[in-house]
Amino acid sequence: MAKTKPGRKDLDSYTIRGTNKVVRPGDCVLMRPSESDKPPYVARVEKIEADHRNNVKVRVRWYYRPEESAGGRRQFHGAKELFLSDHYDVQSAHTIEGKCVVHTFKNYTKLENVGAEDYFYRFEYKAATGGFTPDGVAVYCKCEMPYNPDDLMVQCEGCKDWFHPSCMGMTIEDAKKLDRFLCSDCSPNEHANRSLNHFPVSPSIETKVEPKRRKR
Ligand SMILES: [Zn+2]
Ligand SMILES: [Zn+2]
To answer: By its UniProt entry, which Gene3D superfamilies does this protein fall under (predicted)?
Structure first.
């Protein structure tokens, strides 16, 4: 079976209408949604082709926003988070409104400035089942949540885990002023408090010994 249907030809690029922005296979694009009050769809262009009338079509692989997934948006999802779906489509190239960049999670967290066109993904999403790959990610803090790159976290110098200031009873302003941070498990003060708390249920040697002396 021929890969290209008769009368169609593959294109190396497409220039977005009314702009000088050039889209090539592999690029990520914003596409006009069917309802104008919705945010643009995000897709990765797999292939660009023109038919015999020179209508340009793009084969795309959709990125889903958390809201569009079966599980919906969760607390740890970032504002710019997308899921790379297994849902492909062919669309008219005219629906492309602009280009964007979908970073890996790691690269996104290293960006100095996040622009309007910057997104990230860390999960692949199966549109039919609502399943994610990977199905688990590292969790942090007392609340044991995956990292939301929109939320400030502070790293403990002791255990190297990361914590939300709010989960540690601090404001974000407090956390930003800290030179160093020790979580409650690693903080020496907390250890002192804890041993005091434990005092009544684990008596010191003195209290054990004294009654024996009195018996003699
Ligand atoms: Zn937390
Ligand atoms: Zn710690």
So the answer is: 2.30.30.490, Zinc/RING finger domain, C3HC4 (zinc finger) (3.30.40.10)
